Amino acid sequence: MNLGAALPPYMSQRKGIFYFKRKVPASLVQAFGDQTQIWKSLETADFSAACRQLAKETAAFELRLATVRLRILSEGLPIAPASNVIALREDMIAALVQRYQVHMLDREEEELRSMRPISMVDLKQRISEADETMQHYRLALTCGDYSVVEDTAKQILAGEALSARTGSEIYTHFCELLLSTEVKILSEQRARLDGNKQPIPQAPLPIRLQPTLTDYLNIWTSAKIRPRKTLDTASFMVRLWNELMGDIPAATITRVHVKSFRDQLLARELATATIKNRLGLLGAVVNTYNEEYDIEGVSNPFHKIPVQDNGQHVRAINRVLN
Questions:
Q1: Residues 134 and 179 sit within 8 Å (Cβ to Cβ)
Q2: Is residue 272 within 8 Å of 308, Cβ to Cβ?
Q3: Which residues fall within 8 angstroms of residue 223, CB to CB, at 6 or more apart?
């Protein structure tokens, strides 16, 4: 690696060895044994190997952060038991299948590592099995036969304390994406057996540990003293967001979501300046959370959302209706 090149976020280098380096949010230092910063050797001088290990360390650190954050937020409140199952939502599906994909690739990696050196006979057998299964799954995907992944789907939902009625539209969509992901997994495993190894991506946090805009608001509220009117306005806007858009994981919020929210505010005939101010306030809530948890390289979906003159918006609606 060119030592003059910039390292990825949270990576550092000492005497040729790469390290995971992450600042502990000030509000959580005590929970981390008074550590203000985490340094952990990635135990390699190879940049590619360090990047793979960095992804795992980052995922582990994020999970620890989320666990501590949820414990703090729930202090003094009854904690829902693990058996308190919630309904599967559309915004959860992508993270569920991605977590499953990373899990399967990690498991395959561990199996191959334990078998090294792998014999040519074992290698050929694995390639043949991967090809046969992939062909079977592709045919099932083409025919819309998702029964081949139903057991896996139920295991994933049970593990995340989620539920979806068998045969429902959302359950079918989940199974469809899961089957498509199975094909991707087999394709990646096949490529690895051929020697074309790619880094395993970082897994998203478990659904119940993914913070929502409500969680972001709690961090923003406690970050510093703010005028009561500003606090009330921010609280109202987050409640309105939850009412109109749902209390979805904040990391899944896109500019498409925000524009839809903006249009619903315009339909209520709020002043253009008011809408811009409210969206800017929600953007500030997101920024504060990202700064508090040292989250880098993430765009703010509320940033610079265009808001046309409300009169133009109402006239445009009337033209469509008339």
A1: no
A2: yes
A3: 288, 292
Tell me the β-bridge partners of 212. Answer: 249
**Burial (Cβ within 10 Å: 0-12, 13-18, ≥19) of residue 77:** exposed
132 pLDDT more than 70: yes
Distance between CA atoms of 69 and 48, rounded to whole angstroms? Answer: 32
Cis amide leading into 204 (omega within 30): no
Pair of tokens at residue 152:
């896996």
As a whole number of angstroms, the distance between CA 285 and CA 278 comes to: 11
Residue of 296, 301, 265 lying closest to 283 (CA atoms)? 301
Question: What local confidence, expressed as pLDDT, does residue 265 receive?
Answer: 92
The predicted structure's pLDDT at residue 169: 93
Cα–Cα distance measured from residue 72 to residue 93, given in angstroms and rounded to the nearest whole number? 27
Helix (H, G, I), strand (E, B) or coil at 174: helix
Q: Could you tell me which residues are beta bridge partners of residue 2?
A: none
Q: Which residues of 182-191 are buried (b: 16+ CB within 10 A; e: fewer)?
A: bbebbebbbe
No. of helices (H) and no. of strands (E), the chain? 10, 5
Residue carrying the six token digits 């309105």: 240
Q: Band of the pLDDT at 70, cuts 50, 70, 90? A: low
Contact status, residue 240 vs residue 135, Cβ threshold 8 Å? no
**What sign does the CA torsion over 290, 291, 295, 298 have?**
positive
The contacts of residue 251 (CB under 8 Å, 6+ apart) are 204, 210, 211, 298
List pLDDT tens digits, range 279-302. Answer: 999 999 999 988 887 777 778 999
d(CA 159, CA 178): 15
Higher pLDDT, 262 or 131: 262
Q: ∠ CA 93-94-100 to the nearest 5 degrees?
A: 90
Cα gap 288→298, rounded to integer Å = 13
